[in-house]
Amino acid sequence: MSDDQSSRSQGSRSWLERISQAFSNEPESAEDILEILRDAEAQSVLDSDAMSIIEGAMQVIDMRVEEIMIPRSQMVTVKASQEPKAFLSEIIESAHSRFPVIGDNQDDVIGILLAKDLLPLALNNELNWVQIREILRPPTFVPESKRLNQLLKEFKETRNHMAIVVDEYGGTAGLITIEDVLEQIVGEIEDEHDFDEETHIKARGNGIFAVKAVTPIEDFNEFFKSELDEQEFDTIGGVILKEFGHLPRRGESVSVGGLTFTIANADNRVIRLLQVTRSDT
Asked: What pLDDT, on the 0 to 100 scale, is given for residue 55?
């Protein structure tokens, strides 16, 4: 065995001994456990991506639905009073896969419509409410105070992907999806609808934007009407990395030029995705 291999082996044993000792002594807090795991990451015993997931999973335990739900005002819904052809364009434009169907008011959620279920009806020229009501999925309701780890377990057991969030009075407060919960653990999930090949900046609503770190700084400045330095770096990721002064973890934030940048996705080498808001928003 080479000296380098021997050193790594001893380092691994040392870390394993520490974590074993920590658990045998019943750590007093989650932070005690995280400190040991971060030490393991620093020694390259634990991959930084794995560490990020562990941290996200531990954070989810203490989080509640109300902290990450999509508020009622931002919900994309289908009204039962609408003609089906009238809401098709909105369904296509939003690119969501599931839509709450509401009755006389926003609190009256009568079902969940899956976009994929509309296709056979459209092909058979049966796009009417008589047929649509037959394919609606029953809605799942959860309170704002429900813990995310409990909700994730329910999603897994019931195979539901969306729940309607209700307040203490039974009114609709918003909605939450399984993707919303998973993003708290693994970071921002980019699917085929988030960005197309040519898109670097995408509006998320409520003054929030998702921005790829590889966005050219000139394009970023033009979009946000900002004046960030275009000489030293080619991309917005380079500018933000300099502002942090270290490779930031997911969830870390910094304010530059009247904008707040939050790390949505990064690994131990590079920033991948940023969440951008106006600092005064």
From this structure: 77
